[in-house]
Amino acid sequence: MVVRLARRAGIFVLTAWVASIIVFTLLAILPGDVARTMLGVQATPEAVAALRTELGLDRPAPLRYLDWLGGLLRGDLGVSYVTHQPIAPEVFEHLQVSLILVVSAMIIAICGAFPVGIFAAWRQGRPDGTVISALSQIAVAVPGFLAGLLLVIVFAVTLHWLPASGWAAPIEGAGPFLSHLILPALALGLIQGAILSRYVRSAVLDIVAEDFMRTARSKGLTPFRALLRHGLRNALIPVVTVSGIELAALFVGAIVIETVFVVPGIGSLLVSAVQNRDLIEIQGVVMVIVIMVLLINLLVDLLYAVIDPRLRSAR
């Protein structure tokens, strides 16, 4: 187990380093001049050159990368080209909002996917099971922003139950916080839950056909109790893999949902940085998202050993 943990940690560090090179290189080769964009087309060449020197853009790219990487290791993402404020505090403040939204959406997805997937597998070939499978397949095809708009029309515009946009921090009270969280979390979680339910259904169907399940039933257990006692643990292995991918996808999907619901998360910060062509802030935000995705993958790998004893090292 220790060797597996060390190996996965090494892969995590190596992947993050390669990702930092890719992110920096892609943004460095973008056409256009940041200094010229900031000063406008009427700026003189002398003013543009002075601003490039002030921002450090006249230095060689390898040196700029090493400085940025060193700051990244210290938790310093640099200073914004537009606001001239440190980027790290702003990124982590917005990241907290995104984490609340993503975790809430993942809870909704899991709570909906497991009962729906198990029911669809258990009732396979019957009318109710077929209807559930068809509805989940239709939900998979619905874009997240469309689900958000439909939820706004129903619950905010028509019923006036929930606010259509905005955000309230938890310190402002449970009522305002939950009322602003429900719609974006539902819009983000329901679609991912539909996708996850398809994998749960497939995993349960595969497990039910295994020999050990027939053995459990032959010992007197009902099919459903055999599934609960012996089948679900084995079905969790592929589902955990998909759940990790889904959780990583939620961070990407949150960019759209935060824009639709005007949620001040890291996705909204990224969109604002792109609009302002604040490349240093874009680098920091993208790198934080990459690290979060890599951490999710690392956690999924470690969960394998917890769920499947065969993956644990022998004493």
Automatic annotation (TrEMBL):
Q: Which residues cross the membrane?
A: 12-30, 99-122, 134-157, 177-196, 235-262, 282-307
One Pfam family matching this protein: BPD_transp_1
> What keywords are annotated for this sequence in UniProt?
Cell membrane, Membrane, Transmembrane, Transmembrane helix, Transport
This protein's membrane topology, according to the annotation, is: Multi-pass membrane protein
What Gene3D superfamilies does the annotation carry? Answer: MetI-like
Mainly localized where? membrane
Task: Indicate where this protein resides in the cell.
Answer: Cell membrane
Gene Ontology molecular function: dipeptide transmembrane transporter activity
Quote the CDD domains the UniProt record gives. Answer: TM_PBP2
Cellular component terms (Gene Ontology): plasma membrane
> Would the keyword Membrane be found if you checked this record's keyword annotation?
yes
Which residues belong to any copy of the ABC transmembrane type-1 domain?
95-304
The family assignment reads: Belongs to the binding-protein-dependent transport system permease family.
Report what the protein is called. Peptide/nickel transport system permease protein
What is the species listed in this Swiss-Prot or TrEMBL entry? Microlunatus soli
Q: Lineage of the source organism?
A: Bacteria, Bacillati, Actinomycetota, Actinomycetes, Propionibacteriales
